[in-house]
Design brief:
Strand content: over 45%
Number of strands: 11
Radius of gyration: 14 Å
Number of helices: 0
Largest sheet: 7 strands, mixed
Shape: globular
Amino acid sequence: VQLVESGGGSVQPGGSLRLSCVVSGFTFSNYAMGWFRQAPGEEREFVAVIRWSGSSTYFGTYYADSVKGRFTISRDNAKNTVYLQMNSLKPEDTAVYYCARKPALGPSSSQSSYDYWGQGTQVTVSS
């Protein structure tokens, strides 16, 4: 199992970035996928999750209150990729962002519900 994030970088406040996480080694469409972030000196925190498709084209999503309305999580099962579109970025969004695989059980916002993690990609929001 591998998860590889990309798309991080430096951006000014109010700017946008799109993170990608390409996965391999498992059947991507069978799993929910989440994004977490960790700022310097802080604990890793939940950002967003997108559930698996099953037989439906509707993907349920759930966001942390701090990013709701600004970030959008999406997935492309044909490309084994999950995305995080981040708009209206703020300095407090500065962190290393991680994608993770979530098996079926467990609360979406808890790190312990996720079993595989990527290496992370740095996002810096600064003027």
